[in-house]
Amino acid sequence: MNRPESTETDEIQLLAPLDQSLMNLLDQVRARTGAARAALFLRDPETGEAVTRAAHLEKVQEIRVPPGRGIVGAVLAADRWMSWPGEAPSPNAKVMAATGYTPESVLAVPVRLNDAPVGVLELLDCALDERSRKRAEGAAARLERILGRSSLAQQLRPVGDRSVTLSYGFEGIIGASPAMKSAFDLAERVAGVDASVLITGDTGTGKELFARALHANSKRAAGELVKVDCGALPDTLIESELFGHEKGAFTGAVARAEGRVVRADGGTLFLDEVGELSRTAQTRLLRVLEDKVIQPLGGGGKPRKVDFRLISATHRDLAAMVRAGEFRADLYHRLQVVRIRLPSLHERGDDDILRLVEHFAHKHGERYERPVHSIPAAAQERLAKHRWPGNVRELSHAVESAVVLARGGVLTPDLFEFEDTVTAPSSARGASEFSGEPTLADLEQRYITWLMERYDDRKVDVSRVAGIGRSTLWRRLREMGYDTED
Questions:
Q1: Which one is predicted more confidently, 298 or 405?
Q2: Chain segment 147-181, per-residue pLDDT in tens
Q3: Domain containing 46: what range?
Q4: 231 with 360, same domain?
Q5: Beta partners for 226?
Q6: What is the CA radius of gyration of the chain?
């Protein structure tokens, strides 16, 4: 996007100070009314939805209420207090399931700015009497003063620009670019059905977060989400991990073990980097998907029926692998009843990058007890221009490092130094770059070590970048003394 020329005073002012003030007030009104929980909903100007800006939540990061729906929607529409049991609508079953909390009573009062309702203060399980109502209205008036003193252009931007809906807030997925909104829309439509979903995208784009959000909003949310990292397990172990084994099925199988498919019975099986499965494992997985029956390695045991939902993820082009004969076409079609593609961070654009910068600055600032107060325009420009080959994961690490090293809570441009590529030796440098006379084996070992450090020991990425097979990489790593038993 085109950005106006910025100055050093054009800074991101983080939402943390405002949010902390709001949470402090919620704590106070909860204590004064005896409520079990309190929440402040603000209306998103872009979508009309009411979104928790501050709340006593445990299992979800935020709740979104569609326009006009539920107690919150009714209070916003009527611009007056309501209670349940009473004239207000009953609590939403989906919200109760997502939060893991079922209230016995709800009191809700409007929050106004310039005499117009912009939000709702909601109290769960407080006494539904005049005393509680007056205290809630007094707290709402204090919230109005806090919001009125804030910069609504900076501090109170539409919450829809900062995070996503209840359906996707389980793991805090953030983004408002068109490509992310398309992914959110697909996820919303498929979350409640048992169709298999294939999530594609580069490493670090958030595929696991989407898988967790899909599970959390499915009919199987009460069951377990069982993850299998197909790229982190050698071919010799992947089948045993997936399908289990009987005692004596292979050397080292000293006891019977259930596979992760059985653990996912009643829940969701998440196959991360499914493109790394061997042809044998692909065949067995296809049979399980077709028959819904599992037979542990080693035979003998009684086959067991299983019922699970399958979500898969990969950074590889499975269609190309099918054409090359590396992946079974029939399994490929079973995996992608619905396909959700996640864009790279560079594709998402400057606005999403800066939303994530703000999010991670707040998150890591709290983690290290080093609050961030501002991010100067020059630092924003540097972050927005970087291509982020490691996507959101790389951005998080970069901001984390800057938070740790920052002085005075300001993330200055010098805290963000990037090395996108390895500079190839030029003829001008010549052999003087080498220390001693390294062999090709020495150089290969240095290269693999560098890749392992660059990609945080993610062997799937190292194998892909180095252009060697997984078995070859595992063998090299064992020779170099790496632990390959993960």
A1: 405
A2: 766 533 333 333 333 333 333 333 457 777 888 88
A3: 13-161
A4: no
A5: 269
A6: 26
Residue 375 maps to a domain = yes
φ, ψ (nearest 5 deg) of residue 41: -100, 135
> Tens digit of pLDDT for each residue in 192-204?
899 999 999 998 8
* Mean pLDDT, rounded, for 1-30: 61
* 223 in the same domain as 156: no
CA-CA distance, 332 to 183, in Å (whole number)? 20
Amino acid at 482: Y
Contact 185, 225 (CB under 8 A): no
Give the burial class of 129: count Cβ atoms within 10 A of its Cβ; 0-12 exposed, 13-18 middle, 19 or more buried.
Answer: exposed
Tell me the C-alpha distance between 247 and 240, whole Å.
12
Phi first, then psi: what are they for 83, rounded to 5°? -140, 160
Question: Is 46 found in the same domain as 188?
Answer: no
Given a cut of 70, whether residue 405 has pLDDT beyond it is yes
Does the predicted TM-score (pTM) go above 0.70? no
| 337 and 394 co-located in one domain | no
Taking alpha carbons only, the member of 1, 11, 15, 5 closest to residue 377 is 11
> What average pLDDT does the segment 248-256 reach?
56
pLDDT digits (tens, 9 = 90+) for 213-247: 898 888 898 898 999 888 877 766 777 778 775 66
Which residues make Cβ contacts (< 8 Å) with residue 187, sequence separation at least 6? 167, 168, 210, 213, 214, 340
- Within this chain, do residues 408 and 439 fall inside the same structural domain, yes or no? no
pLDDT-derived band at 78, boundaries 50, 70, 90: very high
More confident residue, 377 or 250: 377
